[in-house]
Amino acid sequence: MKKTIVVGIKLLIILISFWILFSFNYVDIKTVTDLLSKPLWLIKLVLVSFFAFCICSIRWMILLRIQNISVPLKSLFQSVYLANFYGQFLPGVIGSDAVRITHGLKYLLPNQKGLFVFSIITDRIIGAIGLIIIAINTYLFFAINEYFSVEFATLIVGLFLSSIFLIYIAIWIGNIIANRYFKKIIKEGKIWLYINRVFEIIQLYGRAPTPIVVCCMISIVTHLCHLYMIVLLSSAMGIDYVTAITFFSAGLVALLVNSLSITPGGFGVGELAFVETIKAIASGVENAAFGSIMISFRVITAISLIPAPIFLFFNNNNNNNNNNNVKL
Predict the structure, then answer these.
(1) CA distance 149 to 141
(2) How many CA atoms lie within 13 A of 322 on its CB side?
(3) Are 14 and 295 in contact (CB under 8 A)?
């Protein structure tokens, strides 16, 4: 009953969001369909989207290797790719992560499953860090170029660098506490064993700062690919009434909203957040069809994921054939 109510609320939010988008002419379906008749633009956009999936797999592989878990990059890519396919329909990011876990566990030893799940959580956190770093730098751009507040921008940079320093200090102190004090108070019982295991995993990441930094850089590149797609779409669709940095900033807000569990994949609310951000930054664009850009972004992502159900079909057939062979 509770799940039914939650699903109903999410569907209601989607309907309200699209009612607003269409009522105020923020969406023009014709511009979306016209994009499909531009093969060169489609190829470029799909390649950028596919590249983002590839480097996400590399980031995950690096995190697993820090924990001494070796999974073929091909298998990780399959997990990421399928998870993104299901993520188009499942709420937020939790559903897609469940797909990654289900698909990936078959490549592991029994004692590696906990580490594997923790790597997905860490991967998600690092992805969020990449988005936050881009957000901070975008805000700095506006602070310097729009308001000419160099002092304020310098303060923000100082706070950002200080936060990185404090993170390293926190990792260092955490390692000391885990090594010298925490192990002494471990008691019998699963909860304490789980807590101790988490501390040990955090220690592993704390001893590998360079790979973690590389993963953060990959996260930034991944999100920049998505934002680049949004800027490209504005040109391809002829909806270029504002500057590229405005589309970039609005896309950043939309991606943040999409990552929340408001609706499946942020459908509806992401488009509305995109439009409202442009209206807040620019002026005189109240009735422009900017929502069409985010809908086209979803269409391009869906096109790049077309091979996923085909792969899933053949993969399931191979598994069924293997099971039948084992029975025989």
Answers:
(1) 10
(2) 6
(3) no
Reading the chain (328 residues) residue by residue, the pLDDT tens digits are 666 777 788 788 888 888 888 888 888 888 888 888 888 999 999 999 999 999 999 998 998 888 888 888 888 888 888 888 877 766 555 567 777 777 766 666 666 677 777 788 888 888 888 888 888 777 766 666 654 455 545 555 555 565 555 555 555 555 555 555 555 544 444 555 555 566 666 666 767 778 888 888 898 899 999 999 999 998 888 887 788 888 888 888 888 888 776 776 678 888 988 988 888 887 766 667 888 999 999 999 988 888 877 766 666 555 544 444 434 4
Task: Identify the domain containing residue 205 by its residue range.
Answer: 2-327
Q: Which value, in Å, is the radius of gyration of the alpha carbons in the chain?
A: 22
DSSP state at residue 189: S
Residue 292 CB contacts under 8 Å (≥ 6 apart), including other chains: 26, 27, 28, 29, 31, 32, 237, 239
Provide the domain count of the chain. Answer: 1
Q: Concatenated DSSP letters for 196-245?
A: HHHHHHHHHHHT-HHHHHHHHHHHHHHHHHHHHHHHHHHHHTT--SS-HH
